[in-house]
Automatic annotation (TrEMBL):
Phylogenetic classification of the source organism: Eukaryota, Fungi, Dikarya, Basidiomycota, Agaricomycotina
Record-annotated Aminotransferase class V domain positions: 98-498
Superkingdom, natural source: Eukaryota
UniProt keyword terms in alphabetical order: Transferase
Xref: Gene3D superfamilies: Aspartate Aminotransferase, domain 1 (3.90.1150.10), Type I PLP-dependent aspartate aminotransferase-like (Major domain) (3.40.640.10)
Annotated GO biological process: molybdopterin cofactor metabolic process
GO molecular function: molybdenum cofactor sulfurtransferase activity
Keyword Transferase: yes
Species per Swiss-Prot/TrEMBL record: Auricularia subglabra (strain TFB-10046 / SS5)
Pfam families assigned: Aminotran_5
Name of this protein: PLP-dependent transferase
InterPro entries the record matches: Aminotrans_V_dom, PyrdxlP-dep_Trfase, PyrdxlP-dep_Trfase_major, PyrdxlP-dep_Trfase_small
Amino acid sequence: MIATQTRVLAPETLGTLQLRPVQGDGDQTVKNQIEASAAAAGDGVLSSHPSTAPEPEATDLARAYATFLQDYPAYKATSALDDLRASDYARLDGAETYVDYMGGSLFPEGLLQDHMRLLLESGNLFGNAHSRSESSRRSSELAYRAREAVLQFVDADKDDYAVIFTPNATGALKLVGESFPFGEASSLLLPMDAHNSVHGIRVFAETNGTSVKYYGCGPRGGVNMESLQVIHTPCPSCSTSLLVITGQSNVTAAKAPLQDILPMAREAGLYTLLDAAALVPTTKISLRKTPVDACAISFYKICGYPTGLGALIVKRSFSRNVMRRVWFAGGTVTAVQVPGTGPTSYHFWEDGTINYLGLPAVQMGLEVVTRYRDVLPQRLTILTHALSSGIARATHPNGAPLAHVVSTLPDLEEPGASGSVVACIFLNASGTPIRNDVVERSARQSRIALRTGCMCNPGARNLHLGLNKEVGDLLFDGDSSFGLIRISLGLVSNFEDVWKVLSWVINEVPKLSNVAN
Ligand SMILES: Cc1ncc(COP(=O)(O)O)c(C=O)c1O
């Protein structure tokens, strides 16, 4: 191992250097700031790096927080989320620094307590929601309320939309894939910046001879509208075609401009399926205003609990007139077992017994998150901005950048315009990428829970790594030695989380230059 000098920043330097907002042209400004931070190296403490990172002192944190508040005064107005963290997340004290919200949110303690209280309440029995007994009706009633809560959460009119419960968002997307009437004269339009559960739909299309077309993303992911325009051309001779949209990328943080895409899709006669798994946990959506035909979500991503439950929120006209079921094994009292003769509502699309004990927690969880959805975009925009610009500015002792940030830098003027994800590649002092497993091991040692690899989104990963391959060739590309590092914030992320991650980046990542790749 070659000994090297690593700059260990003095606490006050961490406060000012790492957390000042980047304004204007992100890349150019970041470049300038990298230079500025290199020039400021004299202010920091230059030393041979110690074998372990210095433990951050509480006073360092307080000082950095004061600087942060000066730079981002609007953060103060989001303190309701600090109260939530204090009341419902005591278990985070002393735990890992959790920055994998895109992987799964963390449940509030009160949600579990309320759920348990309901299930354990004297005289409250919950039977399978398939008969007319008191216990069965109780389950049915609560399942009904959960459906209503889901509709409310996405602002959908219950006359227009139904909620079909699925095991997760993937199950919801698959349900559309397997029941969409793909034929030789139809098309499937898929986004390049998409999760594998979206890419998977193409298998159903290809099996039926349907042409699959990909639309591209911008330099920082999301939707390239020109590319979409090229492939969406109205086609009078085409039969039923489907456009799938990634609401928010789980890697690039880019959000799709639904208000621009939907009129275009309508004009071209395309049905629309929105993957909202990464979008709805932190973003209010309105299916009244952006009426996609179907929308897939997962509840553990929204409120952390229960796992194993998602939903397809589907236009009744779409499920009735377009989707086709080849198999049915519904478990409700009102459904019959012959495909094509059953009811046209959710009953027909849910396989077997629904998760009737878990569903009351869905309603409770959505209520909790709803209470904070107005302040969440402001808070997450600020935290993500501080984190992203802090990482972008961090340098090696020789002045070389420590990381290449590839996700969207949030716009402080437009809270919530992009997601709370920072995706980056860490670089060694000579500018080559550091392997994922090396970074991940270091993060684990510093007790930081993040995600590395391709995040099930090969299009976004390869866009950013500059690999010139077709998305299709990469779907099952198992090489995760090099990929992206994803740090994602969520419901109860706070300044301390960001500060701990930045401390790790500044003090520990430079040492990884010496670890053999
Ligand atoms: C954008 C996006 N779509 C779909 C999924 C799949 O969600 P689930 O694991 O709930 O099926 C994920 C999961 O991370 C995601 O981020």
